[in-house]
Write a sequence for this structure.
């Protein structure tokens, strides 16, 4: 185990600052926010690393996909996170490719808050196919164009929104920036 | 302050509360259970609101705390001093200068912006509690969006009294899905919640629930087409500032029936009078 990669330098202040950014983009879906103090922990991008340190610890389970598996030691050391063995049982998923949303736990009608959060590491939050977002948090619909989403993403999200209040919340991370797609948002193409 | 983490709560507790807040924002109006901690003040004095504020507060935030609209009452002063001591944050009594506003039972008269967060202290988060005492039952009702019981209560009010008799904590529908308690704010304030630009967070410490209304979200008071929701306001102008659009407190001034009506929102009233009294206690 090598521990040359640090976590937050000032854990209290940096976790708070990162949380407020997550809160801002969760409350205003699609709004792109950027970290002031990036955390360097490849193969995680700075945004992914900071969001994980802010939200996960020994009380929640995390699932990592294969390209990010090198980060287990770093996460175990800095966050003490519980390793989920399969996609369907994880509270948080951190991945470079979106798993089929139907395979991820979406909570129950009585306890929809148990639905998972997916942290998806994408190449860029710009230059991809245009998506229009509508819903709570948005004064008027906004357009985002992240890269790295599956071709049938809009159809999958339609299904994710249809089961509301059950559902999965998504954070898209690229470089030091990220934006959120909470389950309450509706997404149209173009 | 020595011996305490920034903003009093330890980091694992803040993380737990933060996770609950994010899920609450993603499911507007749904009550998310959380592991409320014991706080250094009794239940009923804002332990839920304080925990939410502690979890979101940063060193560069400017905090305002109001109790029934006033910045200078015991609850407001003690909570403001608490965060001033344990987080060292700047405090204010001016609504427009604050980035986080913790409130007990009022929404400020000054319209809020999208860079502000309003944190409500909530005694009873379950809007159906007075109609159905079982938590298991009300949970099921929320799961099924079955709010017939509340409609019956409103109907019975109208049948017996000619109008709905709820003057505070008026039940609202959030995002056309969840029935929500707006906390015991006067019915007068209810319409301010609809499509408010600021994020609204609700913390109930004893009941261990957090819920939220994201910015620009539909919040509709429950009513009937033929008996629409009607604002209730004392038919007076504020004795101090002359406002005719603010929520008023009735103040008894002597034992011979003397009384006056003044704005419940002290900052709004002082601002309209153009004096510096709204500085108040900024300890």
């Amino acid at each position: 185990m090598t521990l040359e990669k640090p976590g937050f330098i000032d854990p209290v202040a940096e976790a708070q600052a990162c949380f407020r950014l997550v809160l801002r983009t969760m409350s205003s879906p699609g709004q792109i926010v950027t970290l002031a103090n990036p955390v360097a922990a490849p193969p995680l991008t700075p945004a992914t690393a900071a969001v994980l340190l802010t939200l996960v610890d020994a009380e929640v389970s995390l699932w990592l996909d294969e390209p990010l598996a090198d980060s287990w030691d770093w996460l175990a050391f800095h966050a003490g996170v519980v390793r989920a063995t399969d996609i369907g049982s994880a509270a948080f998923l951190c991945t470079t490719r979106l798993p089929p949303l139907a395979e991820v736990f979406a909570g129950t009608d009585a306890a929809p808050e148990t639905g998972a959060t997916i942290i998806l590491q994408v190449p860029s939050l710009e230059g991809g196919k245009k998506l229009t977002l509508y819903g709570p948090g948005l004064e008027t619909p906004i357009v985002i164009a992240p890269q790295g989403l599956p071709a049938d993403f809009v159809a999958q999200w339609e299904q994710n929104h249809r089961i509301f209040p059950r559902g999965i919340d998504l954070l898209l991370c690229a470089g030091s920036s990220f934006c959120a797609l909470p389950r309450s948002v509706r997404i149209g193409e173009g | 302050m020595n011996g305490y983490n920034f903003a009093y709560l330890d980091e694992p507790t803040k993380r737990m509360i933060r996770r609950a807040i994010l899920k609450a924002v993603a499911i507007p109006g749904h009550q998310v259970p959380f592991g409320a901690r014991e706080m250094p003040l009794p239940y009923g004095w804002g332990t839920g609101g304080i925990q939410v504020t502690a979890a979101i507060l940063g060193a560069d935030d400017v905090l305002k705390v109001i109790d029934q609209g006033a910045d200078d009452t015991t609850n407001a002063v003690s909570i403001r001093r608490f965060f001033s001591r344990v987080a060292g944050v700047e405090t204010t009594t001016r609504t427009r200068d604050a980035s986080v506003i913790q409130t007990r039972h009022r929404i400020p008269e000054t319209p809020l912006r999208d860079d502000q967060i309003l944190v409500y202290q909530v005694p009873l988060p379950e809007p159906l509690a007075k109609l159905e005492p079982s938590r298991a039952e009300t949970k099921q009702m929320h799961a099924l969006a079955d709010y017939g019981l509340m409609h019956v209560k409103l109907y019975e009010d109208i049948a017996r009294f000619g109008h709905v008799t709820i003057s505070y904590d008026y039940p609202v529908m959030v995002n056309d899905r969840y029935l929500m308690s707006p906390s015991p704010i006067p019915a007068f304030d209810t319409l301010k919640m609809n499509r408010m630009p600021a994020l609204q967070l609700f913390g109930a410490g004893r009941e261990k629930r957090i819920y939220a209304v994201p910015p620009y979200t539909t919040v509709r008071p429950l009513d009937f087409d033929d008996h629409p929701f009607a604002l209730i306001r004392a038919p007076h102008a504020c004795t101090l500032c002359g406002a005719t659009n603010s929520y008023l407190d009735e103040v008894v001034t002597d034992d011979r029936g003397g009384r006056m009506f003044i704005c419940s929102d002290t900052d709004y009233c002082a601002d309209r009078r153009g004096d510096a009294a709204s500085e108040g206690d900024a300890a």
